[in-house]
Design goal:
mainly beta
Length: 85
């Protein structure tokens, strides 16, 4: 409870915050309103979709410019980004 993390993909290894995409992992950390399932600063989800202390699957599918994030099989992000078209 209260943890805040993320999974970076298509990211450049570097010191500090990586340049790239972040799939948010934050169920109940209150100082950041972007919750689990968000594609950070591109598609932000503010509703708590996953509960603390319960297992769930978070899938990231990046195919060309099409990016999807799924939580327990449910698509919560489905967007396109011209950077990789």
């Amino acid at each position: 409870p209260g943890a805040n993390s993320g999974m970076y993909f298509r990211a450049k290894f570097m010191e500090g915050w990586p340049e790239g995409y972040e799939a948010q992992v934050n169920n109940s950390y209150t100082r950041d309103p972007k919750k689990t399932g968000s594609l950070y600063n591109i598609v932000n989800i503010t509703e708590q979709l996953m509960k603390d202390d319960e297992w769930y699957e978070e899938h990231i599918i990046a195919d060309g410019d099409h990016i999807q994030i799924k939580l327990n099989g449910k698509t919560v992000v489905d967007t396109r980004d011209g950077k990789y078209s």
